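Hi there, hope your week has been kind to you so far. Please have a think about how the structure follows from the sequence. I've dropped the whole record in just underneath, so have a look:

_____
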Amino acid sequence: MVTRQKARGCGSRHEGFCCRVESVVSVDERGQMVLPKEVRQKAGLEAGDKLAIVTWGKGSEVCCLGLFKADELSDMVRDRLGPILTES
């Protein structure tokens, strides 16, 4: 029998999970943008936190960008690959 771990984090599929447009930001001439304070607060982001950028696209074109807390992305990768790496 397959058992599943309790869902945790944003990457989990659970009731009530949804995506939405939270805000619209502009990219300045130096390629920088500001995440609105409300978004940073909801995400628990503080100065110095690292974000990983994940892209989706077709061929050489990128259509979507995703931002993930780098430490949580590392945990997700470790959770997925850990069992594979420990198998003999």
User: Anything to note?
Assistant: Residues 46-86 form one domain.
